[in-house]
């Protein structure tokens, strides 16, 4: 465990804690992105991608001044250019500190006050602009990434043997193709572990690339499976996958990686990264904080 990870674990995140009954922004913990990026030669001032981190908090709740409970799905996003990420358990503790705190004379006013407070606190903590919205029951709900094909449909499972379960980029095999093609691929069994709590995280990863090179699908399954015993945050896993593929493709190729993780502790994280010449329309639905955009029943 790195010194930085030890420092994080020495806070409330690594201990049994009681939830705060009063609003408490000091519970938030920011983690520098560069601690992980430097291992893969990703420079904060020269990122090989664009993208967003989108979060859904399914159990946000507060109260109006007269004690009426107010509960909503909260969606937030911030740019991957931010120097920091928010550690998920700290966000959960912070959001739960709103549970018994009273704001506003009506439900609408309560939500507006909470939105402004959370945007301010997270923006200050992350030193970037954070957008927050509460999703109403009548909000638009859309399916995304419907054009992506399950990687396992390309594989003869009987011949597949997976033996490495720590991130192993050497498993990825690339061959030259006769023409430039676009590939829409999905792997529904991504599994990694939080590097602070060591709890398992599950998700679906979506990969699009357009290149004259062809990534062998069976090798990609082996590589993505190698995260199974890896200890990283969701955002880090997404960037690692992107960078490993980026290093094997040509610089003018299109590349997109998005991981839709399942919720844990009432919160899910959905990072997406794409090359500057790549426009996957559905990612704009994911990053639209007024829309509830998902793919599978697991999410």
Would you summarize the structure shown here?
This protein has 299 residues and is an alpha+beta fold.
Structure description:
With 299 residues, this protein is of the alpha+beta class. Helix content is 23%, strand content 32%. Strands 5-3-2-11-10-9-8-7 form an 8-stranded mixed beta sheet, with helices on one face. It has a two-stranded antiparallel sheet with strand order 1-4. A two-stranded parallel sheet has the order 6-12. A hairpin with a 6-residue loop joins strand 8 and strand 9. Mean pLDDT is 92; it is low at 5-10.
The overall strand count is 12
Structural class: alpha+beta
| CATH H-level homologous superfamily name of the largest domain | GTP cyclohydrolase I, C-terminal domain/NADPH-dependent 7-cyano-7-deazaguanine reductase, N-terminal domain
State Rg: 20 Å
Provide a count of the helices.
7
Report the helical percentage: 10-25%
How many angstroms does the end-to-end distance come to?
30 Å
The residue-averaged pLDDT reads: 92
Share in β-strands? 25-35%
Characteristics:
about 300 residues; GTP Cyclohydrolase I, domain 2; 2 domains; 12 strands; two-stranded antiparallel ribbon; eight-stranded mixed sheet; alpha+beta
Question: How is the topology of this model organized?
Answer:
Elements: H1 3-9, E1 30-32, H2 34-37, E2 50-63, E3 69-79, E4 84-86, H3 88-96, H4 107-126, E5 131-135, E6 141-143, E7 149-150, E8 174-193, E9 200-215, H5 217-225, H6 234-248, E10 254-261, E11 267-274, H7 281-286, E12 292-294
Parallel strand pairs: 6-12, 7-8
Antiparallel strand pairs: 1-4, 2-3, 2-11, 3-5, 8-9, 9-10, 10-11
């Amino acid at each position: 465990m790195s010194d930085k990870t030890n420092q994080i674990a020495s806070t409330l995140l690594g201990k049994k804690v009681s939830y705060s009954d009063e609003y408490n922004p000091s519970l938030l913990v920011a983690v520098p992105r560069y601690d992980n990026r430097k291992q893969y030669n990703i420079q904060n001032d020269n990122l090989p991608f664009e993208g967003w981190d989108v979060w859904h908090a399914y159990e946000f709740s507060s109260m109006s001044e007269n004690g009426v409970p107010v509960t909503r799905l909260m969606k937030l996003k911030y740019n991957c250019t931010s120097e920091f990420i928010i550690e998920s358990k700290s966000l959960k503790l912070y959001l739960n500190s709103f549970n018994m705190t009273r704001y506003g004379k009506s439900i609408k006013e309560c939500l507006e006050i909470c939105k402004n407070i959370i945007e301010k606190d997270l923006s200050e903590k992350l030193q970037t602009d954070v957008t927050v919205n509460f999703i109403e029951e009548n909000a638009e709900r859309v399916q995304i990434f419907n054009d992506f094909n399950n990687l396992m449909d390309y594989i003869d499972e009987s011949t597949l043997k997976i033996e490495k379960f720590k991130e192993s980029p050497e498993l990825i095999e690339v061959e030259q193709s006769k023409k430039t093609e676009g590939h829409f691929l999905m792997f529904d069994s991504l599994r990694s572990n939080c590097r602070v709590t060591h709890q398992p995280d599950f998700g679906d990863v979506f990969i699009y690339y357009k290149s004259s090179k062809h990534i062998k699908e069976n090798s990609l399954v082996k590589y993505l499976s190698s995260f199974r015993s890896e200890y990283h945050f969701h955002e880090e896993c997404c960037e690692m996958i992107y960078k490993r593929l980026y290093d094997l493709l040509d610089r003018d190729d299109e590349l997109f990686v998005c991981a839709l993780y399942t919720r844990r502790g009432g919160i899910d994280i959905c990072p997406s990264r794409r090359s500057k010449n790549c426009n996957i329309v559905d990612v704009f639905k994911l990053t639209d904080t007024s829309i509830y955009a998902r793919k599978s029943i697991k999410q």
